[in-house]
């Protein structure tokens, strides 16, 4: 039957605008589409080149879609939303979950003096690429990040970044991204987000949903100051990797939260890639042990000469994950810090020496303390 054959897709395209048809074949970004680029971290590939990863999400925003209205109605009923402020936050937070993911898109990128096209995006709209760029060329474009402190005791900030952009030739729009150039030596802080730097109460599923969709994000006291202290005066070449069970649909809100609360700018996010229609609501935020372990191990393997500080909370499986990471990389993991929200004991950190694991309740109690 013809609609199941190879001619169906091209014929179906005639229901779209000329712009849509043209960009389908070229992979360019259509006028009603956009790209969200996530910050990434480059590493030295060899003596002459950097390995530079890129990660974007190609979407068509659905400003007034039926999916969005249904989702809002469902959550409003489930969470018994009546407060006007909560309703406005809900509408804002829901938007990325009903974006139309655009597959087969191949953005044109300008980065480090090179112009190239990324591979085609997948069904979930996410597009990935890794480029090997000569060190001399890449380093010409490095920009220093704001150290966030004017103290005389500041350790010189050496983590820099390169900005890049995707563009479409018709509308001349630019979609900006950033790659951090993480030095081969120094300290990387691998941090959870929910109940580690942001109050979520993930152990109570109703609170988890309310804190995610109905309330402005609230920082765990003292954590932004602590991370700034570690970055500015404690560790040299300090960089932050946020590895979380939260989905990429919350990236922009989480990034804005980190910026407004004063967390260091030298950070990447490693979140879950999901399509909401494939999951139930609570499954979107389930703590994926294997996912977090693989991402953390991948980061450590990219920077074998760096030391790592692991920071999480006791609400889900962070202690067990971090203990396994330590057992696999005892020479790389400098210390493990667990925010204790449910009377966690040292028994959950099997194999981690007692002088390398620490419990705390908020960041303020750690300010000014010597670190291991």
From TrEMBL:
Signal peptide positions (record): none
Pfam families per the UniProt record, alphabetical: APP1_cat
Domain of life: Eukaryota
Domain Phosphatidate phosphatase APP1 catalytic: 187-340
Taxonomy of the source species: Eukaryota, Sar, Stramenopiles, Ochrophyta, Bacillariophyta
Species, as recorded: Cylindrotheca closterium
GO molecular function: phosphatidate phosphatase activity
Protein name from the UniProt record: Phosphatidate phosphatase APP1 catalytic domain-containing protein
